[in-house]
Amino acid sequence: MSAALSLILIVAAAYLAAHVLFEWLARRYRIVSGAEYLVLGVLLGPQVSGFMSEDVVASFSPIMTLALGWVGAALGMNFYLPRLIKVPGSTYTIAMMEALLTFVFVSGAMVMAFSFAFDLTYAQVILPAVSLGAIATATASSAVTLMSGETPHPVVQQLETTSLLDGAFAIVVFGVLLCVVHIDVSIGERALTATEWVAITLGIGVIGGSLFHLFLGRERHPDRLFVAMAGAIILASGAASYLRLSPLLPCMVIGAILVNTSVNREDLMRLMSVVEKPLYFVLLLLAGAAWQPSRYDWMLPVALYVFVRLAAKLGAARLAARLGDEPELLRADWGRGLIGQGTIALAIAMNYSLNDNEIVPNVVFTAAIVSVLVTDIFGVRIVSGLIADRFSFRRVVGG
Amino acid sequence: MRRALILLLLLAGMRLIQPLGENAPSSEALLAFGFLILAAYTVGEIAYSFGMPKLVGYLLAGMLFGPSALHTVSAEVVLRLNPVNELAIALIAFMAGAELKWEEVKEHGVGYFKILGAEMGLTFIALVATVFFFRNSIPVLVDQPVARVAVFALLLATILVAHSPAATLGLLTETRARGPVARTSLGVVLVSDVVLIVLFTIVAAVSRAILPPPGGAHLPGLGVVVWEIAGAFVVGSAIGAAVTVYLRFSHRDLLLFGIIVAMLGAEIARLAHVELLLTILVAGFVTENFSPHGRGEAMRHAVERAAAPVFVVFFALSGASIVIGHVVALIGIVAPIAIIRGLTIWGGTAAGARWAGMEREPRRHIWTGLIAQAGVAIGLAAIVANFYPELGAAIRTMALAVIAINQVIGPIIFRRALGAAGEVDESMNGDLMGVTAGGAGGEEQGDEQGEHAKA
After folding, report:
1. Contact B445 A270 (CB under 8 A)
2. How far apart are alpha carbons A180 and A197 in whole angstroms?
3. Cα distances (Å, whole numbers) of residue A346 to A106, A125, A131, A316, B32
């Protein structure tokens, strides 16, 4: 089957799935929309039906890269400073501690697990283990968002902030990691250092954001806004991918610059959301189709990752609340609300597997997919259960 | 000044990045795509400030940054971005079909054929005569038998009578021109595609009889052509009917749906071996004219929105595929051919329009919409080059050089003519490709409001 027809069928399947079946499922059973596209992708891919060959999936890598960039920019657009400064400082402290603790705990555990299970050296397993640590840190915002409109409670604000910072933390860690392990590229007589690659990554984002402004000035026309925004994101994604860097980080920087400096913030966010949904569906489907079982014995490490992440999230949240002096308000089990994985986790895993020189890419990708599948199915229910508990808690305290 | 600075920054950025990356066209394609969107858009703005259509700016950007000049975008990457071209052509065809109203076709259809008959006939004869006249200036025809010269002249003339629906529609969308000149030019250009396919088939048969191609190569036969045209109506109508049924039940996410329809339609046309442009055009026509509650129009607006950034890259890629060296090398022969083509289009269109009973004022300007050439002509040139390896290659080189001139000059004179006829919507002058304000999200918002109202 030709690549074009495959892409059309993918988009058509995603489109129909979104509007006919899965939205209904999501509403009725409170399943976060997303996991089902992954399953659909796996079913269409070379591992199950063979409807899409490996070559066809590989030919979509520019679209996957673009989708990654868009995911990064969409997250960056949540960093609107005038809104963020209204959030208490302690909320950020707790969120950052939770992210850091989860990352350290999962990375450490996976270093042990990989070196033991695959007979690899510590130096070899650092990259996949730390990548999984970053992936584990990411929290699905969709589950929290679904509940946040319904319930104005401090724990919801904590969950929203933590979810946002978790995503940013994961993207930054992964972006820097790719700079650290970057293959040698020589300029003159020496190779570029990791710090220089980090500077280039951030530079792409800053230049992309600046170009947008040079382009438009105070322009408000939606078409110009769209072309300038799309052009900046595509250029940054393409540049990052071309340089074997993560497109997520520079595009997140672009998103943050745009939302804080543009006079058309609302228009930009609206335009962004119009494209984000179909691109996200395509990303999920292609991620599912690109999945392949590892030649390593992956079952145990993947199961271990899912378990360790769960434990890390719950434990890190509890510890962070205690260290942040908010154990009364948040209570010990507020980490239940952070269990969902979602877009960012999947995007990082996809990014990891797109860089062909990585070690055990299929194990990392499989772990992320399994975790996303498991947690997205139960994510909203867990969050809604948590919120319901908090309301009864508040009523008891108040009465 | 600001725009020049943007271009400099973009170019400097590309120059810095390119040595650091892997030398693989696949990974460079996305980078080039982003670069072309921003660079072409900027050059379009610069061109506009000099009174030229933005579309010409996009073409010039492609020529400037393409393989012929600065080589910022390589020939391999241009090939890699071919899917963007295909999507653009499908979107253009859908929009063109949706622009046609049933009442209008009934009222003016015969007139379009009269104009086209006079214009194409005169141009074709004049171009054949020109090739015979300049035969000793064309290296491949010097001291060659008449049969060989005749085949060269017939095939080159067939390629050069082609028009460009993409350029015409692109300019009409940019200027949002409405009126008899805009409407008639578009109608004639769209009909010309069908006529051109028939003409090409006849000329191919005649050429085969005069000068059999080496290696038994085949140009399309009559049966194939009949199916290509008739099948396009059948397949296009089926796609249009399916879209109409869909719009009866749902009108959400039309932006995405429009892209899917265009891409799926193009792929179905390819699989069914029917004429792609005509298939999607018919699908657009059926959707626009037979959808309930003005939803066809909503669909057209959604497709227009999706087309905006794609158009920019499409015309930039068209510019990038122009080989400037060939144009310069052949200027002594291609310039007279382009001038004669322009004059005969002017004369033929004027005669045809008079025959069709058109009023004097629009009659003066219609020819300007028929000068531009692009995708269809380039496609025919490629077929001819495959058919006659040596002679065909010379025809293609010369045709591409003439097309390059027409591609740049056509939109400029058409834009001026539309302005002189008072058909340009001056309020849309700052627009990217003439899409109405409201934003991509406007449609979504409207949809959502509709859903809320239903709830």
Report:
1. yes
2. 8
3. 17, 20, 12, 21, 26
- Taking CB atoms and an 8 Å limit, are B257 and A66 in contact across chains? no
Query: What are the beta bridge partners of residue A187?
Result: A190
- Among candidates B259, B266, B308 on the partner chain, residue whose Cβ is nearest the Cβ of A223: B308
From its phi and psi, is residue B436 left (phi > 0), alpha (psi between -120 and 50) or beta? beta
Q: In chain B, how many H helices and how many E strands?
A: 19, 0
CB < 8 Å to B41, chain A: 215, 227-228, 231
Q: How far apart are CA A92 and CA A89, in angstroms?
A: 5
Rounded to a whole number of angstroms, the distance from the CA of B95 to the nearest CA of chain A is 17
Contact B41/A228, CB-based, under 8 Å? Answer: yes
Residue range A339-348, pLDDT digits in tens: 888 788 989 9
Cβ within 8 Å of residue A73, ≥6 positions away: A233, A251, A252, A254, A255, A258, A272
Pairing of strands A186-187, A190-191: antiparallel
Q: Is the pLDDT of residue A10 over 50?
A: yes
pLDDT digits (tens, 9 = 90+) for A124-181: 888 899 999 999 999 876 555 555 555 556 677 888 889 999 999 999 999 999 999 8
- Is the pTM for the entire model greater than 0.80? no
Our CA-based measurement puts residue A200 at a distance from the nearest CA of chain B, in whole angstroms, of 9
Q: Is B45 on the interface with A (CB under 8 A)?
A: no
* pLDDT reported for residue A21: 60
Q: Name every chain A residue with its beta carbon within 8 A of the beta carbon of B313.
A: none
**Considering only CA atoms, which of A286, A237, A207 is closest in space to residue A74?**
A237
DSSP label at B212? P
Question: Which two tokens mark A367?
Answer: 């772990």
Q: Which two tokens stand for residue A320?
A: 């962070």
A 238-257 residues inside an 8 A Cβ radius of B? 238-239, 241-244
Nearest CA in chain A to B14: A239
One DSSP character per residue, A278-310 reads HHHHHHHHHHHHH----SS--HHHHHHHHHHHH
- For residue A389, how many C-alpha atoms fall within 13 Å in the half-sphere facing its CB? 15
Q: Is A222 on the interface with B (CB under 8 A)?
A: yes
Candidate from A34-38, A178-182, B64-68, B345-349 with smallest mean pLDDT: A34-38
Beta bridge partners of A191: A186
d(CA A350, CA A368): 9
> Nearest Cα to B410, choosing from B324, B318, B308?
B318
Secondary element (H or E) of residue A81? helix A81-84
Partner-chain contact B439 A62, CB within 8 Å: no
